[in-house]
């Protein structure tokens, strides 16, 4: 297996990974010219429209090297990875399945936050790294400056950095030669029992779960019996094959190869990412070696970072929405949901996401693929609550928070936040960060013009509007990356919102005590502008426990009951107004306030 090279492309979002992948496919003749289209490996419409990679995509290419023997053909297995911080787990999986990584840096933007985060992961996995400057054909490309930044972060020599253009194909052949030359061939033993690392999985209607695997030891063919070592699930292999980039059936997959195993399983839950697949033991043929098969050191199970609830606008759509979410979950191991009910919104689902972009993508897919526009509650993170009894619980939504009298302290997740920006925007970025509860740690200069600013910051402050605020403050040049560091206690309170003296759970949130007044005022003002007026007066109140801290009033529609009077004593007028007043009071007790779904979205946006 000396002719196999497994590698992936890592970069910040929008640095040209998918475009470079297109050129590699074209150059190696994997795809015919007539079938070629832009961002070929981005299969979802959403990926094409937004210009981002959401799902990683493996592909197998055959390349005849011109430098070495003309007879030597190399099998290149490429994994195209996402660049957005929310999908960092996708990158970590693909890095575990390869021996090398192409580090791609945009010549017009230089090193950015996600470039560094992915590079550190690649170094931890002991991968061979090939540094590449992309988009050299653009008029505003600053190649020298970009090379100096790469040398600063990687400590390599200038001659090791390749220059390519993913758009025109310039330098692509040099890159292919460097991949063949520098990336080591897979190490493993063909004669050992099968061990295959699952780095992704996808549901297929006809073949069940397709496990995207890297064969570490041994080999596998169709109709063999396999076992998932973590979930202990057993199944028969329907077929095996590789990606070209469509599924290409083959007789068997051998040590070092990347391909798929059609397991026939009905849920991705049984074939988890990071699991090890091995051959099932056959009765009367259990050898000692099979007994001692060690599972591969996979990675931690993906845990959602942000929780929000989805409610169908019509109560009758509940079952349809559950089916839609189940179909989305089939292909997305990181997305979780469970049923919940709410007095204001009825029955719905509490969903877990990796971040706000992940939430947006699930929402967009619900709208496009199933024509469901859900009502979404305020996104929140997972809090740890220490009780006075000594035990701790985790809460996923504000409605689960116990009574304050039994709480010792509430802890929230903090993240390590890195912001990379041109140094001229330092003042504006610091101003944005002063509006959060971030703690400044350090500033490191990549060169004279660019810097990395490091903070410790609560996750809630990062997921709300920080990305947009940083982009505004830095004219779009700043980029950020974060990773969970620890839980820390903080003085947090639950803010409740009452509409017509009824608590609406969907508007409840857990916030720092010092922000309670301003946040309560903001929410009731937003509600005043977005809830339609009724025939009776509506009180909007923000409360902490039993204490009201902010109030707004939506005035009632007023019918002029005295219009028919054309004279006479003033007591007649007063009598009609008193009668109207009694009617309104009665209506206020009987009438319910209908809150439209747009109102929930309006409150989310700051």
Number of discrete helical segments: 14
Sum up the overall morphology in one term. globular
Helix proportion range: 25-40%
Count of DSSP strands: 32
CATH class division of the largest domain: Alpha Beta
Query: Given the helix and strand composition, which structural class is it?
Result: alpha+beta
Instruction: Tell me the number of structural domains.
Output: 5
Describe this structure in words.
- The chain has 606 residues and is of the alpha+beta class.
- It has five domains: 4-182, Rossmann fold, CATH 3.40.50.300; 195-291, Elongation Factor Tu (Ef-tu), domain 3 (Beta Barrel); 306-377, 2-Layer Sandwich (Alpha-Beta Plaits); 384-490, Alpha-Beta Plaits (2-Layer Sandwich), CATH 3.30.70; 493-604, Alpha-Beta Plaits, CATH 3.30.70.
- 27% of the residues lie in helices and 33% in strands.
- The chain has 14 helices and 32 strands.
- The strands form six sheets. It has an eight-stranded antiparallel sheet.
- A hairpin with a 4-residue loop joins β22 and β23.
- α8 crosses α9 (356-370).
- The radius of gyration is 29 Å and the shape is globular.
- The two termini are 56 Å apart.
- The model is unreliable at 39-44 and 283-290 (pLDDT under 50).
């Amino acid at each position: 297996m000396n002719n196999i090279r497994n590698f992936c492309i890592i970069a910040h979002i929008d640095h040209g990974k998918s475009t470079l992948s297109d050129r590699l496919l074209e150059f190696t003749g994997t795809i015919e010219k007539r079938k070629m289209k832009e961002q070929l490996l981005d299969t979802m419409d959403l990926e094409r429209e937004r210009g981002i990679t959401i799902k990683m995509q493996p592909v197998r290419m055959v390349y005849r090297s011109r430098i070495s023997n003309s007879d030597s053909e190399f099998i290149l297995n490429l994994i195209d990875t996402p660049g957005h911080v929310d999908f960092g787990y996708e990158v970590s999986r693909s890095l575990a399945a390869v021996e090398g990584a192409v580090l791609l840096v945009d010549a017009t933007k230089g090193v950015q936050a996600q470039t560094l985060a992915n590079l550190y992961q690649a170094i931890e996995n002991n991968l061979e790294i090939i540094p590449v400057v992309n988009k050299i054909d653009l008029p505003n490309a600053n190649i020298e400056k970009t090379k100096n930044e790469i040398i600063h972060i990687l400590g390599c020599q200038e001659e090791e950095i390749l220059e390519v253009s993913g758009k025109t194909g310039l330098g692509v052949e040099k890159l292919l030669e460097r991949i063949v030359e520098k990336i080591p061939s897979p190490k493993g033993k063909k004669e050992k029992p099968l061990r295959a690392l699952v780095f992704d999985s996808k549901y297929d209607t006809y073949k069940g779960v397709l496990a995207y695997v890297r064969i570490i030891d041994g080999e596998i063919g169709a109709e063999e019996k396999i076992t998932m070592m973590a979930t202990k699930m057993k199944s028969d292999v329907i077929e095996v094959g590789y990606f070209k980039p469509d599924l290409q059936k083959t007789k068997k997959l051998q040590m070092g190869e990347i391909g798929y195993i059609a397991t026939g399983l009905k849920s991705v839950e049984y074939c988890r990412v990071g699991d090890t697949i091995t051959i099932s033991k056959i009765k009367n043929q259990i050898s000692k070696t099979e007994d001692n098969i060690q599972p591969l050191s996979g990675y931690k199970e993906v845990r959602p970072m942000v929780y929000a609830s989805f409610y169908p606008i019509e109560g009758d759509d509940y079952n349809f929405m559950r089916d839609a979410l189940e179909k989305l979950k089939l292909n997305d191991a990181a997305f979780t949901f469970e049923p919940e009910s709410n007095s204001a919104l009825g029955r719905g689902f509490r969903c877990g996401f990796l971040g706000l972009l992940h939430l947006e993508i699930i929402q967009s897919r619900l709208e496009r693929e199933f024509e469901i526009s859900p009502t979404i509650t305020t996104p929140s993170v997972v809090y740890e609550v220490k009780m006075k009894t000594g035990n701790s619980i985790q809460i996923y939504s504000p409605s689960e928070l116990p009574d304050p009298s039994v709480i010792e302290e509430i802890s929230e997740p903090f993240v390590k936040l890195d912001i990379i920006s041109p140094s001229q925007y330092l003042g504006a970025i610091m101003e944005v960060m002063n509006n959060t509860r971030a703690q400044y740690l350090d500033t490191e200069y990549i060169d004279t013009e660019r810097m990395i600013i490091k903070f410790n910051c609560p996750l809630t402050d990062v997921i709300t509007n920080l990305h947009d605020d940083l982009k505004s403050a830095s004219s779009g040049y700043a980029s950020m990356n974060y990773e969970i560091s620890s839980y820390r206690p903080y003085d947090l309170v639950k803010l409740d919102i009452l509409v017509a003296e009824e608590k609406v759970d969907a508007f409840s949130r857990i916030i720092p005590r010092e922000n309670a007044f301003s946040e309560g005022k903001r929410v009731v003002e937003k509600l005043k502008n977005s809830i339609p007026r009724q025939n009776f007066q509506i009180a909007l109140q923000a409360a902490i426990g039993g204490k009201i801290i902010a109030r707004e009033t939506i005035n009632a529609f007023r019918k002029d009951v005295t219009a028919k009077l054309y004279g006479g004593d003033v007591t007649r007028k007063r009598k009609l107004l008193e009668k109207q007043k009694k009617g309104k009071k009665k209506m206020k007790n009987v009438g319910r306030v209908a809150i439209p779904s747009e109102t929930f979205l309006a409150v989310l946006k700051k």
